[in-house]
From TrEMBL:
Catalyzes the dismutation of two molecules of 6,7-dimethyl-8-ribityllumazine, resulting in the formation of riboflavin and 5-amino-6-(D-ribitylamino)uracil. It comes from Oleispira antarctica. PANTHER family: RIBOFLAVIN SYNTHASE (PTHR21098:SF12), RIBOFLAVIN SYNTHASE ALPHA CHAIN (PTHR21098). Keywords: Repeat, Riboflavin biosynthesis, Transferase. Lumazine-binding repeats lie at residues 1-69. This is Riboflavin synthase.
Length: 92
């Protein structure tokens, strides 16, 4: 949900750039990473085996943006419209 191509994702504390994303079945997301040999050797990634479970952290800005948008949608509407203003003599 918060993964974007050319954005960043953190895998077990290692920040990496997402090259591509693809929506998959059942709401899943597939993403591609290029990991250079230096990063592999200097991080826990060197110990990974197929099937290894990892901790992912996604773009914090996207999460904050979603929360702000949700809060603005939850705010009560004022009920003031152009028609209301016209009916009450404030709009011609």
């Amino acid at each position: 949900k918060y993964i974007a191509a050319k954005g960043s994702i953190t895998v077990d504390g290692t920040s990496l750039t997402v090259n591509a994303i693809e929506d998959a079945a059942a709401g899943a997301t597939i993403f591609d990473l290029n990991i250079v040999p230096h990063t592999v050797q200097e991080t826990v990634i060197k110990d990974y085996q197929v099937g290894h479970t990892v901790h992912l952290e996604v773009d914090v800005i996207a999460r904050y943006l979603e929360r702000m948008m949700q809060q603005s949608n939850d705010q009560p509407k004022s009920g003031i419209s152009q028609a209301f203003l016209a009916q009450n003599g404030f709009w011609k």
